[in-house]
Structure formats: C-alpha cells, structure tokens
Specification:
It contains 11 helices and no strands. With 264 residues, it is an all-alpha fold.
Length: 264
C-alpha cells in the first residue's frame, strides 16, 4: 500500500485530476487499479504473441509491456478530463445565454442555477452540485469557489468567476455574463478557423501515409517476394495489416482530437 501512495505522490495533482474527471477513485486506489491492469494487459499481450511464435523469450519483454501499459493507463484520467472539457464546450454558449435570459427575466440566481441544472446535461452536473451545496448550508460564494476548482473547463471557470465577482461587487450579473459569453464565442470562432487550416494538410498526410504508401508498399512487397521465391508467412501479413490499421486509427484519432469542442 505504501508503494501506491509513493507513486500517487509522484504524479502531480492526481487527486485534483480525479475530481475534475469525475472519478470517485482515491489516488492510491487509482494507482493500484492501474498497476494490476497493466500486469494483466502485459501478460495477455505476451501470451498472444507466444501463440504465434511459440518462443518463451517473449516473456522476457513482459516488464517492458507492463511499464508501457502502466504509463498508458495513468494517462486515462487526462483523457477523461479532455472529454469532460469537450462536453462542457459544446454547451457553454447555450447554457450561458440561457442563464442570462433567466437573470434578465428577474429569476433569482438560485432558481436560475436550478433551471440550468435541469436543462443541460454536462454543465448541469456542476450547477446541480452547486445547488445541493447551497441547500446543505454552504454559502453561495463558497459553493461557486468549489465549483471553480472542480471544473476542468476554462470556459465554465470564466463564467463562474464572473458570477462570483459580480455577486461580491454587487454589480449586474447578466451584463457581466454577456461579455464573458461573447468572448467565449470569439474564441470558438478562432478555434474553428484554426481547425479548418489544420484539416487540409492532415487529410493530405492521411491519404499519403495511411492509404497510398501502405497500399503500394504491400503490392510491391508481394511482387518482390514472388520474384525472389520467398513466401511470407500468415503472421507477417497479419502484422502488416495491424500496422496499417494502427496508423489509420492514429490519424483519425488526431483529426478527432483536433476538432473544436462545439456543435458546428
């Protein structure tokens, strides 16, 4: 158990990351779960490779596979945070404008928060927790501070900060929110333009590296092996197919990850 605590201390901000990713695991439990998952995955990969080549030497590389799997699984919390950010990014403009309309219609800010919680799935989770904390006796300002810490989205953090500052200064919340939402809209428009500029070269590289070169290379390899009288085994063709599929998957993952977190 001490080993898991030491590893958890080595990962900076792991506790906050787990909270922002909305994962109920403690840092020690998350490290322990990741450790055992990497062991099972590393041994499983070795057994799969062993069924093809039937050489026990492959198990000498099992610590390397386990280490790579451990690093990969430890990064899952960051992936989960990015997913939460994108879900919030798709709703932030609509939820912000909804909140402005509610406040301009003389709806109390507490009730406006409840309405946002009911109407928006991703952002509503945070407003629902905020309302629950207020119902349990936490002051509104303290509840807003807690939500600012727990949210991984910079856009939602700006909105909550603006609400908190307006409440502290006694200024109009709706007008202050309007400027923040306008800024978020401008940032999203810039992100869309940058995504359009990135998409053309990515598509070209995808066609070259993931489709044209593997297709022509495989055909040339088959022709050369037939001329040289050298027959490739089924395992070689399977490995080539897996590598081509992996390259295509990585390109598609890069394209998806670079897509702005909004409904376009």
């Amino acid at each position: 158990m001490e080993l898991y605590k030491i590893i958890a201390r080595w990962v900076p901000g792991l506790k906050l990351k787990l909270l922002q990713a909305r994962m109920a695991d403690s840092p020690e439990y998350y490290v322990r779960k990741t450790f055992f998952s990497s062991i099972f995955l590393g041994l499983g990969f070795c057994f799969v490779v062993f069924t093809f080549i039937s050489k026990w030497v492959v198990f000498l590389f099992s610590p390397l596979f386990m280490a790579l799997a451990f690093v990969y699984f430890m990064g899952y919390v960051d992936l989960k945070i990015e997913r939460v950010k994108k879900e919030i990014g798709r709703e932030i403009v609509f939820a912000g404008r909804f909140l402005i309309i509610e406040l301009e219609s003389s709806v109390p800010i507490y009730q406006a928060f409840r309405n946002v919680a009911k109407n928006y799935e991703a952002i509503g989770v945070y407003f629902h927790e905020l309302v629950e904390r207020v119902d349990l006796g936490t002051p509104m300002e303290d509840a807003l501070n807690e939500m600012i810490i727990l949210t991984p989205s910079p856009e939602l953090r700006k909105v909550l900060w603006q609400v908190l500052n307006a409440m502290r200064t006694g200024s109009e919340v709706a007008s202050a929110l309007g400027s923040v939402i306008d800024q978020v809209v401008r940032e999203q428009e810039i992100a869309v333009k940058e995504y359009g500029r990135k998409l053309n070269p990515l598509a070209m590289f995808y066609m070259m590296i993931a489709i044209i070169i593997p297709s022509l290379g495989t055909i040339m390899l088959i022709i050369l092996t037939s001329f040289l009288g050298f027959n490739l085994s089924l395992l070689a063709y399977v490995i080539i197919a897996l590598l081509i599929g992996f390259v295509q998957y990585m390109f598609l993952a890069v394209i998806r990850s670079s897509r702005p977190a909004m409904d376009m």
